[in-house]
Amino acid sequence: MNRNLCICLDFLTNAHKARIQTAAESAGFTPHFFTTDQLEQAAACLQHCEVLYANSPKLLRRAPNTLRWYCCSNAGVDLYCADPTLFANPDCMLTNSNAYGVTISEHVIMVTLMLLRRMPEYEQFLQRRSWPSPLPIRSIRDGSFTLLGTGNIGSHVAERLRGMGAARILGLSRSGRPVPGFDEVLPISRLDEALPEAHVLILSLPSTPETVNLLSRDRIALLPRDACVINVGRGTALDQDALAEALNEGRLAGAALDVMVPEPLPEDHPLWQTRNLILTPHISGNMSLGYTCDLNVDLFCQDLANYAAGRPLQSLVDRSRGY
After folding, report:
1. Does CATH place domain 101-279 in 3.40.50.720?
2. What's the pLDDT band for 322 if we cut at 50, 70, 90?
C-alpha cells in the first residue's frame, strides 16, 4: 500500500517540490501538494495520509486518527501544544521548524544597532524637520548582552553579536546548561539577579505557562536606565503596559518589539505613541527570506528520512512543555 504525504503550503517553489519529491520517493512516500486555498482538497487527501507538512490548525483538526506525524513549518507551536483537541491521534508526533535563526538574528542585529545609535530619537527630530547635534551612541563592540532564550534563535543572535565584537554574552534558559557561543548560561530562576546588569536584553522565548509575563512590571523596574529591550519571541513574555511606562518616563533607553499582544496592534493602542520604541509587524521571521524557505524544506526532508528509517526526529516537540 502506498504511504501518502500531504503538503499544504504556499511558499513552495518548483525546486522545493522537486526536493520533496526526491526525498519522499527515497523514503517510500507519495507526496501530494496543495496550497492553503485548496483546503478542501487537502483535507480529502489527508484522510489517506500518515504525514502532514503544513501550518494549518484548521487542516490538522480534520486529520484522521491515523495521522502519525504533523510537521509544522512554523517555529512557534504554542497553539498546537495548548489545544490537544487539534490531534485526533493523541500520540501524533509534532515537529516544528528551526529554520528562522538567520533571518530573526539579522533582525535583532538591525534593531539593536538602531537602538544603540538612537535612531528612534533621530527620527523624531527629522519628522519635525529639525537638525540635531550628534547624540552619544553605543556600539555592539565591547558591549554586554543578555539573551533570554538560548535555543536556535538565541544561538544565532549570540554568534552574530560575537562576530561584531561583543565583550560578554550572558544567556538564560530553563535548564541553565552551557551553550556554545555564550560566556555563561544561567537558569531563568536567576533572572532577577541578571537584570540589573542587562544593558541590552533580548527575548526569544516560546510561549509557555512559565514564560507568560516573565518580564513583569517588577522585573522591568530592575533594569538599568540605559537598558534596551528587544522581543522577537512571543508578546506574552512581557508586561507591555509597564514597558511603555518605563520608556515614556525615561526609565529605559529604548525597546524594539516584533511581537505583541494583540496582533495586529489596534490603531488606538498606546504602543504606537510610546517613546523610543521600534515596532515591526511580526516580520522578523516568517517565510519572506528565500534561505528560510530552502532550509525549512531541507529540515523536513531530513526528518522524513529519519521518520522512514525509524530514527528519532530532530525537531520533535514535547507538547507537554510547549517546545
Report:
1. yes
2. confident
